[in-house]
Amino acid sequence: MENLIALLVGAPLLGAAVLLCGGRRLDKSGHWLGTLLAAVSFFIGLALFADMLGKGAEDRAMHQRLFTWISVDGFQADIAFQLDQLSMTFVLLITGVGTLIHVYSIGYMEHDERRRRFFGYLNLFVAAMLLLVLADNFLLLYFGWEGVGLASYLLIGFWQHKPTAATAAKKAFLVNRVGDMGLSIAIMLMFTTFGTFAFGPVFAATDEASEGKLTAIGLMLLLAACGKSAQVPLQSWLGDAMEGPTPVSALIHAATMVTAGVYLIVRSADIFNAAPDAQLVVTVVGAVTLLFGAIVGCAKDDIKKALAGSTMSQIGYMILAAGLGPIGYAFAIMHLVTHGFFKAGLFLGAGSVMHGMNDEVDMRRYGGLRKYMPVTFATFGLGYLAIIGFPGLSGFFSKDKIIEAAFAKGGTEGWILGSVTLLGAAITAYYMTRVMLMTFFGEKRWQPDAEGHAPHPHESPKSMTIPMVLLAFGSVFAGAFFGIGDRFVAWLEPVTNFEHGHPPISAGAITGATVAVMVIGVGIAYLQYGRRPVPVVAPRGSLLTRAARRDLLQDDFNHAVFVTGGTHLTRSLVYVDHTLVDGVVNGTAASVGGLSGRLRKLQNGYARTYAVSMFGGTAVLIAATLLMRAV
Amino acid sequence: MNPVNYLYLAALLFTIGAAGVLIRRNAIVVFMCVELMLNACNLAFVTFSRMHGNLDGQIIAFFTMVVAAAEVVVGLAIIVSVFRARHSASVDDASLMKL
């Protein structure tokens, strides 16, 4: 069975190669080929999963070594895969949700003449992400990591004829580069500390390394995770990434890309366990991001950007949970999987709404769509209930566990983190209810688009609704399936270890509080958007609203600090270069020139002047000789 | 008579010659001063020969005379050709040895 692992990556990679090199003759069949190969990868994953379930919990990890990639003295890198319970979870999520998104894209991209290329990129994305989660060393993981960055760049900028899309792609790529720098530094540090970067030897040797080095590695890994997972301070690319086609947003937010950071931290659990300071920073980043994303999500009128804020916030939950250590790793991954289901469903639903509304994204121009798009409404509604943590649905089980684990961190930190997660849950309920009410309820606020076509909302074709229905099933049942009886925790336990957290207040009370804040959030949103008509033109809003509409001034901050700061820095460097460096060089030249000009005057051409110097020199020599003799 | 006095005379003649080479402008006079310095050296050689009681110094004096005669031939030829070219025997006019 181990030999099948490479095929997991190989199938979508083959698809990408064929579709991108195949040329126009594949235009008619390319999307089927891409979808088929994604599905092949999924079924191989299922077969491996069944095989894995047949073994004992401790012998489930499988390895496959393909060949040696780089071999020089003291440095060896292998193309080798490791499939354990953690990787398996990701493989099924990536290929499963990925395949559904492929199917959905067949309908969504039907009228795009570059659809074949789109499917090639999708396959490349899936392949890179699979490589990332299947690698058995950090260098190969880095390869997949960069592949994900490349594929995201290509897909976000897929509609490159729009300048906004091209810019958004560049922005995503550049911000991700900052994070990638962290990962490469972390790998170099690992190599200098442990002499290797294969998972097994590195994690086995964490006891021997000094805590300072482990903290440095941990912080660099966190920087990498911040880039890919859009965590503060590298979150600014996520909102703009909505310029890509909607299936891409669903893929980035549910199955690939943003989950990579969570994977990296959970995979490096041994390093973080030995570096409590790094762990604390991880929880702080998670807590800040979860509020940041939630606040941004409340103010956006663009349905996709509201969902993007929501993703940022939910990933913040996962990062926070991953920072809690063995009491949180399993819950971070569990929330990641359930989030994969409902966020993919929500994005596909949003895409379906846009599909029926002439690509309008402003929620203030939706309203009353539930009658026109019943399937979209039902699936989006179930995703909505799942994300706000409605009791019994997926999000309830996974988010509640994270909140419990946050309280269980203990001490003041535990209370702070717990309160932040609770507050986040309330805001989540608020902004998702807002999205729901503005889109599907209330009166119609549709307006003709720029070319004068009035929208005729209609249900999307089967190829789009079926994936949405399947994802809605996942949104409803996955949480209960994983959560009841701690099934998911038992599954991941051999990889991430698990300790039961002991919150200072009873778990029942925390669950009650979670449900209560959810109800409060829904209630406030209902009072604001359900009871009153929604104005088509956004009101001016409070200072916070206006800041949140500008993504809490993240771009202004980056501009002020990095762009302006960088400009000033380069200007001062240029000044130093012109004055100091050029000054030294030109000064040396000028002084040598000046000195030679003066020395030249000694050469006046008079024979007697030369004779004087000869006589003088001789006299000095004789005097020196006599003096030496005398001494 | 104390032979050291001859050495004093040789030093005096040499100094006069050197001063003349450095100060005078007329090439002929400069040239004669060079000869004066050479002969001051000859005088010193001969004196040392006498003081040490061997003939080495006298032999070297003959060599010096031979070289001086050759130098006179070349030097005068140069001076004459410079004079023909520039209508002047002043060394300051021939300040060509500069950049």
Textual characterization of the structure:
The complex is a heterodimer of chains A (631) and B (99). Chain A has 631 residues and is mainly alpha-helical. Chain A folds into three domains: 1-170 and 246-267, no CATH class; 282-448 and 463-539, no CATH class; 559-630, no CATH class. Chain A contains 24 helices and two strands. Chain A has a two-stranded antiparallel sheet. In chain A, a hairpin with a 2-residue loop joins strand 1 and strand 2. In chain A, helix 13 (276-299) packs antiparallel against helix 14. The longest helix of chain A has 47 residues, at 554-600. Chain A starts with a helix and ends with a helix. The mean pLDDT of chain A is 90. The termini of chain B are far apart. The model of chain B has no long low-confidence stretch (mean pLDDT 89). Chain B has a single domain (4-86), classed as Helix Hairpins (Orthogonal Bundle). Chain B is elongated and about 50 Å long. Chain B has three helices and no strands. The chains are: A mainly alpha (631), B mainly alpha (99). Chain A binds chain B through residues 600, 603-608, 610-612, 615, and chain B through 18, 21-23, 30, 91-92, 94-99.
Q: Layout of helices and strands, plus pairs?
A:
The complex is a heterodimer of chains A (631) and B (99).
Chain A: H1 5-21, H2 30-53, E1 62-72, E2 75-83, H3 85-108, H4 115-134, H5 138-156, H6 163-194, H7 199-204, H8 211-229, H9 237-240, H10 246-255, H11 258-267, H12 269-273, H13 276-299, H14 303-323, H15 329-356, H16 374-388, H17 394-408, H18 411-440, H19 462-483, H20 487-496, H21 507-530, H22 543-549, H23 554-600, H24 607-630
Antiparallel strand pairs in A: 1-2
Chain B: H1 4-23, H2 27-52, H3 56-86
Helix pairs in contact in B: 1-2, 2-3
Main location (chain A): membrane
Keywords (chain A): Membrane, Transmembrane, Transmembrane helix, Ubiquinone
Organism (chain A): Streptomyces viridochromogenes
